Amino acid sequence: xxxxxxxxxxxxxxxxxxxxxxxxxxxxxxxxxxxxxxxxxxxxxxxxxxxxxxxxxxxxxxxxxxxxxxxxxxxxxxxxxxxxxxxxxxxxxxxxxxxxxxxxxxxxxxxxxxxxxxxxxxxxxxxxxxxxxxxxxxxxxxxxxxxxxxxxxxxxxxxxxxxxxxxxxxxxxxxxxxxxxxxxxxxxxxxxxxxxxxxxxxxxxxxxxxxxxxxxxxxxxxxxxxxxxxxxxxxxxxxxxxxxxxxxxxxxxxxxxxxxxxxxxxxxxxxxxxxxxxxxxxxxxxxxxxxxxxxxxxxxxxxxxxxxxxxxxxxxxxxxxxxxxxxxxxxxxxxxxxxxxxxxxxxxxxxxxxxxxxxxxxxxxxxxxxxxxxxxxxxxxxxxxxxxxxxxxxxxxxxxxxxxxxxxxxxxxxxxxxxxxxxxxxxxxxxxxxxxxxxxxxxxxxxxxxxxxxxxxxxxxxxxxxxxxxxxxxxxxxxxxxxxxxxxxxxxxxxxxxxxxxxxxxxxxxxxxxxxxxxxxxxxxxxxxxxxxxxxxxxxxxxxxxxxxxxxxxxxxxxxxxxxxxxxxxxxxxxxxxxxxxxxxxxxxxxxxxxxxxxxxxxxxxxxxxxxxxxxxxxxxxxxxxxxxxxxxxxxxxxxxxxxxxxxxxxxxxxxxxxxxxxxxxxxxxxxxxxxxxxxxxxxxxxxxxxxxxxxxxxxxxxxxxxxxxxxxxxxxxxxxxxxxxxxxxxxxxxxxxxxxxxxxxxxxxxxxxxxxxxxxxxxxxxxxxxxxxxxxxxxxxxxxxxxxxxxxxxxxxxxxxxxxxxxxxxxxxxxxxxxxxxxxxxxxxxxxxxxxxxxxxxxxxxxxxxxxxxxxxxxxxxxxxxxxxxxx
Length: 873
Known about the structure:
Elements: H1 2-13, E1 19-20, E2 32-33, E3 44-47, E4 53-57, E5 61-66, E6 71-75, E7 78-89, E8 97-98, H2 99-102, E9 103-108, E10 113-119, E11 122-129, E12 136-145, E13 150-161, E14 170-175, E15 180-185, E16 192-196, E17 200-201, E18 203-204, E19 216-220, E20 230-239, H3 243-255, H4 257-274, E21 277-279, H5 283-297, E22 300-303, E23 307-310, E24 313-314, E25 329-330, H6 331-344, H7 347-359, E26 370-371, H8 393-408, H9 411-430, H10 441-444, E27 458-461, H11 462-482, H12 485-506, E28 507-508, E29 513-514, E30 517-519, E31 529-531, H13 538-543, H14 549-559, E32 565-566, E33 569-570, H15 592-604, H16 608-625, E34 648-649, H17 650-664, E35 667-670, E36 675-678, E37 688-696, E38 699-708, E39 711-719, E40 725-729, E41 732-733, E42 738-744, E43 747-748, E44 752-755, E45 760-768, E46 771-779, E47 782-784, E48 801-808, E49 811-818, E50 824-830, E51 836-838, E52 841-846, E53 849-854, E54 865-872
Helix pairs in contact: 5-16, 5-17, 6-7, 6-8, 6-17, 7-8, 8-9, 8-11, 9-11, 11-12, 15-16, 15-17, 16-17
C-alpha cells in the first residue's frame, strides 16, 4: 500500500508537465511469444467501414467499437474507458498517424477481432479478444516494420457503474513502476482497474476531476529485433474487487494470453459443432445460422452481484453515457430468444437464463422487464417502476419455460420452477377485468407499444393478447405434467375462452385485417373500441397458429404487401397510416424481431414463398449490414441501419433462427413424449437440405431432404437413448399435387394428403429406431419461386412482391405487387405443362421451370401497384 501511495504522489508532482517519465526498466520487457491464432473457421472479412460496429465479448467483460479501431471497454458492471485507439509514430512524420486513418482491413470472428493497419513503412495487426471467463480484455499487436516505430495508446477514462448506478470520485493515474494506468474509486477503492503493457512508458497524468474530459495515453516502445518472435500485449483488467484481486487478473491475462485465445476457440468450436446446423443451397443462410449460434451464446453475462443471466443486446454507450446498448438483463428478450435457443439445443444457457429471471420474480408473480447490471449495488432499483413495465414479459417467460421443457424433456426443471410458473400464471390471469380471458394493458403493462400516439388508450393490444393465449396452452400441458390438476383445468378453460375472444374481438371483416388493439371504452360506454391500424403485430398471434385460417391468410396478404413489407423486412406500421414515420422507433422502422414473427406466421399458414423472403431478409443483417452481429432496427424508407439502433440485438438473431427452424424446416420437438414433428416448407428453388443435430431431449436427429420431379425423399438418423422416437413427417408439396404413394424403408405406408390454400402436405407417421429412408411419390402441382432481391445500402424498396398464390379451378392465380416503372421476372416450379398465361409473358419453360416477364402497370409513378397473373394448365 505504501508503494501505491508513493506512486500517486510521484504522479501528482508531475501534473504540471502532464507526463510522468518512467524510470529505465530493470530488465528487457517481455512480450507474448508468437503462437498460431487458431480459429473455428467462421469469419467475416473485408475493407474497414468506419461506421460499422465491431465488438467482442466474454462472460465478464466486453469491448464495443467500430472497424476503424476505436473501442470502449467494460468489465461488468463497470465502464472503464471509451475512445481507446492506437496512433503510430514514425521518424518521417512530425505528428502521430491516427490508426483510423490507416485502418485498412478487418476480420470478425467468434474468438476475437483483428484490425489491420497498413502504412508504407509498417503493418500492424491488432488482435482484440475477451477471454471467456475473466474480467478483462487482451490486445495482441503483431508488428512488421522497416523503420523505427512507436505506438501511442490513447483513451478517455469514464470509470463508473453501468446505468443507472454511479459511485462518483473515479480517477485514472499512471503507475510508472508498473507500466500501466490505475483506475480507482476515490476513498473507498472498491472498484479498480488496470490498463497497461510491459512495453508502456510515458503515461500522462492529470487532475482526477479532468479524467472524463482529458484523454490519457501511454507510449509503447519495443526492440524491433524481437518482433518476429512475440506479440506486443495490451491488457485491461478490472472489477468490483480489491486491487490485489485485479492485480492477479492482470498478471494472468499477460501470462496466459495464448491459452485464453485457445479456450475461446475451443468453446465456439463446441458451440458450432454441438448445435443444430444446416447445409442448404443458400450459403448466406448457412453462414447466418452459424453466426446466430455464436451471438445467442454471447447473451450470457456473469455479473459479480447478480449471477449469470441473458442480456438483450450490446452497443457502445458513447461519451458520458453508461448504458452499453441493451447490455442489461431483459426478461422478455431472454424469453423470446430462448424459443430459438431451445430449438437448436442451447439447453444449458436457456435453463440458466430462465432460472435467473425466476430468482428475481416479483412476489405477486410478475417477471421483471429489465434488471440493470448495477442492480446488485442499487437495492432501490428493484422497486423502480420501469423494471416491471412490460406486461408481455411474464407470458413470454411462461412460454419460454414450456418451449424449453418440450424441447429438452427436463423434468427436474419443471418440478423446481413450477411454483414460479404457477405464480406467473395467476398474476397474468389477474390482469383480466372484463371477463374475456385476455390480459389488459392498463393492469399488465405495455405490450407492443411503449409510447404514445398509436398506443394511446390501449386496453388490450393483439401482441399481448396473442402471447397470452399461446402461454395458456403451455400452462395447461405443464400443469398436467407437474400434477397440478386445478391449474391445468383452469388454463385449458381460459385458453378456449381467450382464443375465442382473440378471434372475435379483433377481426375487421370489411378491411380483411385483424385490428391492432382494443382501446379503453369511450366516456359513457362499456365496450372497448378498436384501433384499426394496419400493423405487423397480428403476426405474433399468427406465428403461434392461433387465428382462423382464411382470415389469417387475408391478413398475411396485407402484411406481405408494400404497406408493411420492404425488401429488407417488415415495418411495424403501414406506410399509409397518418402516424407512419420511417425513422420512428415504433411507427415505421423495420425490426428484424417482428420480421421474424411475420416470417413464422407466413409459414404457419403455408405461405412458404413469403416466409422464405423474410427469412432471407433477416439473414442478411449479420452478414451484410454488420460483421456477424444483427442490428436492432433499420430505416423503413432506405436500406440502412438507424444511428439510434443498438448494433448487436439478440432478438434480431433469434427471430432469424425461429422461422428458419420452426418454419422453413418445420421442426417441433416433444421430448416428454419422445416425439418429433417435421413439416418442412422447402423453397421452390431448393432440391436439397441437410440438417444436423436436431435436439429432442437427449436424442439427436440428422435429416436429409432430396427432391426431384415427382419424388420427395427424406433420410433420418437418430442417436441417443435406446427408446425410439415417434415421428410425424408432413412435407409441403406443390399446390395442386396428387400424392400417389409413400414408403418407409421400401415398405408402403399409409399417407394422408392435406390440402391447404397454397400447398399440399403428405403426412405419414412412423417409429424411428436408428435410421429410416422415406420416399413420397406425387404428380403435378406448381410452386412460386421467391423473387430475388438485389440490395445495396441506401436502396429503396422496389422488388416484386407475391401477395397470393392459389388455385381456382384449373388455373393457378398469382397476385403480385410492384412498381409500374420496373420490368420484373417471376419464376415458378411447375410439375405440369402450362398452356397459357394472362397478365405476363412466358419467356422460358424448360423442365420444371417456368419464367414470366411482366410489368404491373404503366406510367411513371413509384407507388406499388397490384396485378393478377392467371396460369392455365
